[in-house]
Amino acid sequence: MITTVIKIDGMSCAHCVHSVEEALGELAGVDSVSVDLEAGEATVVHEDSVELGVMTEAIEEIGYDVI
Q1: Which CATH number covers residue 7?
Q2: Cα–Cα distance between 31 and 21 in angstroms, integer?
Q3: End-to-end Cα spacing for the chain
Q4: Range of the domain at 12
Q5: Domain count, the chain
Q6: Phi-psi domain of 29 (left: phi exceeds 0; alpha: psi -120 through 50; beta: other)
Q7: Buried (b) or exposed (e) across 23-44, using 16+ Cβ within 10 A?
Q8: Contact 17/23 with Cβ under 8 angstroms?
Q9: Distance CA 55, CA 44 (A)
Q10: Helices (runs of H) and strands (runs of E) counted in the chain
C-alpha cells in the first residue's frame, strides 16, 4: 500500500469532506481516505495501481481543485 497526500482547494465544510471521502473511497484499489478540512488535504492509502491522475479526476469531477 502507498500513502498519497493530495492538496485540495475549495473545501469549506463537513459536506465537502464527506464528498471527497466518498469520491475517492469509491475508486477500486483505495483502502482508506482521510480528509483534513483545515489543512485542505486528503490522505489516501491505496494500491500501487491507483494513479494520482485518477484520484485527481475524481476530486475535480465533484467540483474541487487539486493544487
Answers
A1: 3.30.70.100
A2: 11
A3: 23
A4: 2-66
A5: 1
A6: left
A7: bbeebeebeebebeeeebbbeb
A8: no
A9: 9
A10: 2, 4
